[in-house]
Prior knowledge:
Blueprint: H1 5-12, H2 20-33, H3 37-45, H4 49-60, H5 74-77, H6 82-88, E1 90-95, E2 99-104, H7 111-120, E3 123-128, H8 131-138, H9 143-154, H10 158-167, H11 170-183, E4 186-194, E5 197-204, E6 207-215, H12 219-229, E7 241-250, E8 253-264, E9 267-276, H13 291-301, E10 306-311, H14 318-329, E11 336-340, E12 351-354, H15 363-370, E13 377-380, H16 386-397, E14 401-406, H17 414-420, H18 425-431, E15 432-444, E16 449-455, H19 465-471, H20 475-478, E17 480-486, E18 497-508, H21 511-518, H22 523-532, H23 538-547, H24 553-559
Helix pairs in contact: 2-3, 11-12, 15-16, 16-18, 18-21, 21-22, 23-24
Amino acid sequence: MHLSQDQLQEIFVGGGVVSEKDFNEIVAQSKIKEISLLTTITKIKGIDEKQLGQVIANHFNIPLVDLATINIPDDILNIIPETIAKRQQAVIFEESDTDIKIALGNPSDTLLAEFIALKTKKNVQMFYAVESDLEHVLSYYNTDFQKLFEKLVHADDTSVLGKISRDVPVKKMVDMLIKVAHQEKSSDIHIEPHGDKFIVRFRIDGILHDIFTLPRQLHDRIVSRIKVVAELRTDEHLSAQDGKMRLILDRNSHIDLRVSILPIIDGEKIVMRLLSSEARGSSLKDLGFSEEDLAKIERALSKSYGMITCTGPTGSGKTTSIYSVLQKINSREINISSIEDPVEYRLPDANQVQVNNKTNLTFANGLRSLLRQDPDYIFVGEIRDSETASIAINAALTGHMVLSTLHTNTAAAALPRLFDMKVEPFLAATTVNLIIGQRLVRRICDNCRVAYTLPLDQIKESISREVLKKYFPDVELIQGVQCYKGEGCRICHHTGYAGRIGVYELLEVTRDIRELIYKKASAQDIEDRAKELGMKKMLEDGLRKISMGLTTFEEVLAATKGDE
């Protein structure tokens, strides 16, 4: 049970967090976007969820608990049955001989706490927990899902297995599979046939994890169910198919999925990409940009025209970075238009166009049309060809701010890539304001992070001592580097990592860089001059994040090989 609209109005308007006019706008946006009021406040007002949580906790005069940092044993979690815990939005996270600590989504409802105190004869201490923390912990239950698949996995009798495969509600299985993937913050679901079984894997923080191995008898039925919902041909088994589907979680949220089906030797393999229905609320600082980087982005955005390009391989977070930039400038006073394939996140008040090759709505044709829509900012999902590059560059030249993504390995390599797309050097030099190169690395889990000393001989071949000393001044004194790692716990699935963060290099097109572009200089020459002018490579940004305890050497070195 969450706090009501009246309660939130009393807390935030009465407490001076937002004005009554702003609160009414937040309520209206919440209904339009079908997301909770608290989530809407974080998006519109840019207030951190934990800050809002502290305001609510103070209103009820109880502590705020950070459930994301607590490893809750099953026996304590199951003191409250799953159905009640999810209905009441309540979690018991600690128990002693005399006390029980309970986190609530609505601290004004004390009936459950009073009932637990009566039942256990213990003192119950109430805490407030934010929505995202409660949802994550409540995902630990999943008892029906576990039991259903355990029956299938451990069924030895083929006749019993055949009966189960006929009786299993496939719709429920597919829905629960997607819900669990969403709760586990998975980006992709892989359903792969192998001989007499098929494997379900989730990609979490960029790494694939085996989740279940299931009997082959269920594979075709699950594939058929997904094809029906994604509006694909159920009688086609030898050709690749692509589609989309949506799963409604509750009245406030849903999950969009991009479905790809490919015939392999053992059958049809499915990969489903989970897409958020809303643009991610992360600020540029949350994504890992330093103050120096943020200043460069501010300078680029302050210009009345030009181009900001984000580069990196597939899955490096380019689109998320661009959306965070757009969220920073988004307001009712400007017109933001985009052409994307696909539209992965919804940006409030923006005009987003989906590429459709069947109707000849390509990047190039869509971009031409957008230029007649009086845009202030244009987002081109990806510059793939010469025609799109030419139109984007000319749009940037004629008074528009264009944001785009390119597939290159470094920031400097974006310029020769534009040359290859027939963009004249003088046009690139005149229009490109900023190039952001990036990779994603996994964050160390906050719950199980520990300090340790990494011996110098384990990293000296990968990074020069001079570069190391910039971020670890004591490295020569101790012949090692003081850093952090995750030991592994339930919260991070015993990987030592939870979530991801970017490592960046920002190439600002200054007068010196512009001169090199005019001369059609190589990527290496441009990069060398940019480094002389103060540009930090991704490796250095990674070392900064290691020194802050955010990630590990293994992650940074894997993401930035050959980057020194």
